[in-house]
Write a structure and sequence with these properties.
It is built from eleven helices and no strands. By secondary structure, it is mainly α. The relative contact order is 0.13. Helix 3 runs antiparallel to helix 6, helix 3 packs antiparallel against helix 8 and helix 7 runs antiparallel to helix 10. The protein has one domain. It comes from Mesobacillus zeae.
Amino acid sequence: MSGLNILSLIIKEFIYFTNLNNRIYQFILFVQPLVLLTIIHFMSVMKGIEITGPYIIATAIVSMWSYVLYSSGSSLIWQKWNDSLNLLIAAPVSLFQIVLSKMLSNSLIAFISLTLTLFYAKIIFSLNIGIAHLGTFIFTAIVLLVSLSVVGMFLAVVFTTVQEVYSFQNFILTPVILLSGIFIPVESLPFTFRIISYLLPMTWAVESIYSGLNETNDVFLLAGVSLGSSFIYLFILFFGIRRMEKIMKQSGSLGVV
């Protein structure tokens, strides 16, 4: 798939997921960051606690994760419900390339939540975001987008086997927020949950962003672990999607999903 085709797909995905007909995505992208910041602001006023950079970034990551969960996680199942998955299978490019392009575009759209959160925090609430090194922050944000893309691809494949997709999405929304250490440090979780947490590429990406804000020395190590685990998942997904596509082409049906 050429770079021009990928850019065209990203633009079309952006228009589709941000137009006036998709109220839930508009809420997640544009309204939810403001709602979460407002809640944290009033909680800090009541408790007398200063809002620091990690709290602001945490609200952005929650919105980014919510968007990826609902958009990327539903991408293939929507195609199945609309009877257009057959067209994707018959396309001259591999299903893996198509899914990867959609996940990348969704992750880039999710970046809107991060940008708007920083804008709301600075302009509306006059908060000090505390980004010491802009280059490091941008790098860790890109690492987070990569991890979100991979998680989105994984969910897109898994959700094709789930009947009640939306119920399952609502079910895993909050647990992943807790397991990835967005608000609660992973070290404070029970041992079993910590194992699950460290298997998520998002966990390492979140810790990398927080380390960058706190100016610790392990920011690039954590980012490297996140990228490494993301590419391992991507490698597994490549063969999984390829096998799924092969079975569907051989059987001539969507029975595998």
